[in-house]
Amino acid sequence: KNYYGGNWASFSFSGLLSWIKEKQQKTEVNDECEDWRKLILENEEVISLNNSDKTIEHVEDFCFDNQDSAEDVEEAGALSKLPPFATSGTEGAAQELEKETIPMENTLPEKAVSSDPASAAEGSETEITSECGSAHNAASGESASPVGKAEAAPSENPAQEPKKITYSQIVREGRRFNIDLVSKLLYSRGLLIDLLIKSNVSRYAEFKNATRVLAFREGKVEQVPCSRADVFNSKQLTMVEKRLLMKFLTFCLEYEQHPEEYQDYESRTFAEFLGTRKLTPSLQHFILHSIAMVSEADCSTLDGIQATRKFLQCLGRYGNTPFLFPLYGQGEIPQCFCRMCAVFGGIYCLRHSVQCLVVDKESGRCKAVLDHFGQRISANYFVVEDSFLSESTCKNVCYRQISRAVLITDQSILKTDSEQQVSILRMPPVERGQPAVCIIELCSSTMTCMKDTYLVHLTCPSTKTAREDLEPVVQKLFNLNTETEKETENEEVGKPRVLWAVYFNMRDSSGIDRSSYDRLPANVYVCSGPDSALGNDCAVRQAETVFQEMFPTEEFCPPPPNPEDTVYDEEEPASEESGLNNATEAKPESSPEEGGSEGAAAVEPEQ
Asked: Where is the segment annotated Disordered (predicted)?
């Protein structure tokens, strides 16, 4: 591949169009070394690998504006987003361009004060948050302000007509888009946030707090109160409902101390359990779809209570919702780990395919790989993403699928005074037997779309093609009429207009047992692509499991050494121009004087 992250990647708009074209044409990669099999010795055998990605299917894209007007339009800006291994000169030019075009914002708040029942361990929050805070604030001596204040946009009348955005504008401003192939949020107390802080990889990324949790009920979208203050300030709930909700949420936080209240319902669904708690239908809907975010049909009582507690425990750490989103998209996360890997000598090769695994016949262990140049690369352990394995190796594997859609719209699904909202909505099944759909709406301050547009991600487990699964939900929430078509139905008036959309199915290879793969050597480890869950816990657990199997006595992702503690030989005194020293000290917003060396540039994030 010529981009980082595989199916975890993010693309500019033009990059995504190229990716769509590649998937629709199903381009095969030609071998540059056609005689690579001649390089295999007599005591060796091979396990062939795929040279094309077969994890993406049913790709369909639609433009709801005049595409002819964009035929001669070029994407603005000559510099594209650079990989982590750029030289200091080109990176400096890229940063200078970004300063002129895209404003940077503060990241995690220094301390989010919350009076909700989920807030815990307040004394330690300042230390935890400061570790994950903005490097810009640390370098400049400024304290990060709460997300709600730092990112407040000028007040605007919700009834005001949205600005007309054309397809040619989207193409021209294509570099302002960072469109994720997989849509996820980070739980503020999830495994990934803990890992980012522990390993100090968090300094290479910035985050924005998700500002709203939404619900779809009785044909309209409404905001769900999350914290205690939100609950008691809510005009949607009666005073009795507020007390009932707070009582139930408090029980979920302490459910282990009161087993008698739920043990009789452990064999029943969470939805049935909620019906016994004297909760009104609207409260049951909020808890089931917007707080626990579980299936109404098959989620057990205990799983539902635990999901509710997880939501509550994540409240108040960085804001009034449990979720964070990385600026510039989810594709930043794998690149952040690449930067840390580069500091310690790791190499990430783009446009460098692998033909096969070379296996020793006597020991049965994999000893090397052959790349497309015929070069043999030896190692003791091999980690292979599932999509690289051939059909013969995966003949006994049964894959699930994920249905995905990405929309560019002209306004939010729930308009408020502030345009800068990051929202999550879990849409209940449109029909019986259909899965619920997770919708994440991103504003321009997440650095994932241009001003006056929103980027909307829809995700659900597949039952059909992505378009068949997700289009009914899109039709309920959005206006799919083109600019030339008249809105004949009243219900279309006021809905956000879709400017462009793409649907595709993605393979979900999570949860597959190793024994399902045929003839896999013991020292070859398989990792999956993205799963359909909202968080990243599955990927973190899998990475740690593989690491511990290879290196059982080593710590997983330990904190890097402090540059001040580095001991140098007398013959080679520490120098401020040392690549490793500067690479370890590098901050995302370091000044030219601090980050001007080539070593520092190797770990600077792309702007």
From this structure: 75-166, 553-607
The CATH class for the domain spanning 1-25+35-71+165-212+323-483+494-557 reads: alpha beta
Give the separation between CA 159 and CA 448, rounded to whole angstroms. 25
What separation in angstroms does the CA of 279 have from each of 296, 297, 429, 567?
A: 16, 18, 21, 63
How far is it, in rounded angstroms, from Cα 504 to Cα 60?
A: 6
- Domain ranges in the chain with CATH number 3.30.519.10: 1-25+35-71+165-212+323-483+494-557
Each residue of 440-471: pLDDT tens digit?
999 999 999 999 999 999 999 999 999 999 99
Cβ proximity of 244 and 280 under 8 Å: yes
Q: Specify whether the CB–CB gap between 600 and 594 falls below 8 A.
A: yes
In 3D, which of 238, 296, 531, 329 has the Cα closest to residue 427? 296
The burial of 366, by beta-carbon neighbours within 10 Å (0-12 exposed, 13-18 middle, 19 or more buried), is given as: buried
What's residue 186's pLDDT? 95
Residue 552 has a CB neighbour count (10 Å cut-off) of: 7
Class of domain 227-314: mainly alpha
Q: Please report which residue ranges of 314-356 form alpha helices under DSSP H.
A: 332-343
CA distance linking residue 122 with residue 317, whole number of Å: 9
User: CA 442, CA 176: separation in Å to the nearest integer?
Assistant: 13
How is residue 358 written in tokens?
């070379």
Residues 6+ apart with CB under 8 A from 103: none
Show Cβ contacts of residue 35 under 8 Å, excluding neighbours closer than 6 positions.
374
For 245-297, what is the HEC assignment?
HHHHHHHHHCHHHCHHHCHHHCCCEHHHHHHCCCCCHHHHHHHHHHHCCCCCC
Report CA Rg, the chain: 25
Q: What are phi and psi of 55, to 5 degrees?
A: -90, -10
From-to residues of CATH 1.10.405.10 in the chain: 227-314
pLDDT score, position 31? 53
Both tokens of 482, joined, read 């083109």
- Which residues sit opposite 504 in a β-bridge? 404
User: In terms of Cα–Cα distance, which of 599, 594, 600 is closest to 136?
Assistant: 594
CB-based contact 355:49 (threshold 8 Å) = yes
Q: Three-class SS of residue 136?
A: helix
pLDDT in tens, 117-149: 333 333 334 333 333 333 333 333 333 333 333
